[in-house]
């Protein structure tokens, strides 16, 4: 009986995958469009591989990051399917108006969409040399332009020092408009852990009834973010957000930076120490949070009597 031997193909390395994918995508597109793969530095110095498309030296669509496609390739997705997906994204992106660059270059128009976010100062030390920022404890406030485009939800442009020079404005002016815009465009959202869990289960088709006990309201954990859940940790800087909540509970607050997108508020009470909470934050950051989304390993504290945000270790 004749036996058929199946030869298992050896998978390409990530670098090899990028090269082959670039060639295949290039062949699928008009020869006037140049396909490139470049290193893109993201938050915390994380470097991702991004595929971009150019004609006459100008980018004509958003960057497509390749990590998830390599994972799909390793899991058995066919080359043709990967290429088709990337080409489809490119064609949709180039067909739609990404955004009017003139709205960004004209400060009088751009200033209505300038907002801020919080990042880790140490992990972004090189980036902070290039962007306007202000320090907040061991974090930094950086500024970005929020695109007003339904097709490209949550797309942003980080603001660099040269943008301020071109606009002819100071960091003080940039900070002023961002403080006005951020709470308005990215409204804060504060919910108990119980509410967040209920919403999560509901989104997955699991209906559960949760009763909020008095202990949950008074001593529970609360998630603070913004309504779009993007860079929501910055909501700790919104005027009166912490002040009003601490006043309602009549307690100081521990602030656990669960990611750049949200923080967890824990009312200060006997039996809970900042050291225990900080160990928990460090473990979660190391095991559960993507490197690019880590904000800090530090536990912070809001002191309601002083209306002050500080490191919890400073008031222990």
Descriptive report:
The chain is of the alpha+beta class and 316 residues long. The protein folds into three domains: 14-95, no CATH class; 101-184, no CATH class; 188-314, no CATH class. It is built from twelve helices and 14 strands. It has a six-stranded antiparallel sheet, sandwiched between helices. Strands 1, 2, 3 and 4 form a four-stranded antiparallel sheet that branches. A hairpin with a 2-residue loop joins strand 11 (253-259) and strand 12. The protein is globular and about 65 Å long.
What's the layout of helices and strands?
Blueprint: H1 14-28, E1 34-41, E2 47-55, E3 58-59, E4 64-65, H2 67-74, H3 79-95, H4 101-105, H5 107-110, E5 114-120, H6 125-128, E6 133-136, E7 139-146, E8 156-158, H7 161-167, H8 171-185, E9 188-192, H9 193-203, H10 214-219, E10 222-226, H11 241-249, E11 253-259, E12 262-267, H12 274-287, E13 300-303, E14 308-311
Antiparallel strand pairs: 1-2, 2-3, 2-4, 5-7, 6-7, 7-8, 9-10, 10-12, 11-12, 11-13, 13-14
Helix pairs in contact: 1-3
In which order are the strands of the major sheet placed? 9-10-12-11-13-14
Based on the structure, what is the oligomeric state of the protein chains? single chain
* Number of DSSP E strands: 14
Domain count: 3
**Structural Rg:** 23 Å
Total number of helices: 12
The major pleated sheet works out as:
6 strands, antiparallel
In N-to-C order, the SSE pattern is HEEEEHHHHEHEEEHHEHHEHEEHEE
Ranges where pLDDT stays below 50 over 5 or more residues in a row are: 1-8, 212-216
- Assign a percent range to the helix content: 25-40%
Q: Which structural class best describes the helix and strand composition?
A: alpha+beta
Q: How much of the residues is beta strand, in percent?
A: 15-25%
Specify the overall morphology.
globular
Distance between the termini: 78 Å
User: What's the mean pLDDT score?
Assistant: 87
